[in-house]
Amino acid sequence: MRLEVKNLDKTFKIYTRGSIEVKGFNNINFKLKKGEFLSLHGPSGAGKSSILKTLYRTYTTTSGNINYYKDDGTVIDIAKVDESEILKLRKEEVGYVSQFLQILPRVSAVDVVSQQLILKGESQEISRQKAKEMLDYLSIREELFDLSPLTFSGGEQQRVNIAKGIIAPKSLLLLDEPTASLDKKNTIRVIEKLKQLKQKGVAMVGIFHDLEAMEMITDKIYELKRV
């Protein structure tokens, strides 16, 4: 077991609207094993992205449990632990790939991607070489490697974002529409990389609007409805 979500609820309080309460999602329950991919599926407004952000603890929960099982047998309830433990989990165990690339300006594409390996102890030289190989695989032209991705097209930025998220994979990976801006060729390449991560035991929870891409990688689907 890698993740067990039990009776998870989230209600948002909108202070600019007189503190009215809006239900984000309710009664979410699922289990995820090592090497499994679970897709969250449902209409817009059903809470898919909010669930991912809650698993990453960007959002706090209203109620419920998010039990994360470490390799040493320790169980951590992401919904309950303090911020220092969450920061440690994000650094060592749980990764998140959002729809948008968020980086410092003037940092090159190679450095954005290679930094993830350097943080895990790889040398700068080896990390940069692996980053270049990953960027090349994801169809980023070599002449762009040393430029800031903030100058790239939307699709190119998304591919850099994916490279950053998967080059040094953690035990649990959360993916919010990783192929949204990609053409079919690059979508297939991303799916192939995710399949390789599955074979290494990485557990993943993801959102796809591309149903064909979702079916290529998914082991099980969690259906959601608007609350």
From TrEMBL:
UniProt-listed InterPro entries: AAA+_ATPase, ABC_transporter-like_ATP-bd, ABC_transporter-like_CS, CP_lyase_PhnL, P-loop_NTPase
Identification of the protein by name: Phosphonate C-P lyase system protein PhnL
Gene name for this UniProt entry: phnL
Family: Belongs to the ABC transporter superfamily.
Protein source organism: Malaciobacter mytili LMG 24559
Mitochondrion is among the record's keywords: no
GO MF annotation, one: ATP binding
Alphabetized SUPFAM superfamilies for the sequence: P-loop containing nucleoside triphosphate hydrolases
UniProt xrefs under SMART domains: AAA
Keyword terms: ATP-binding, Lyase, Nucleotide-binding
Domain of life: Bacteria
Residues of the ABC transporter domain: 3-227
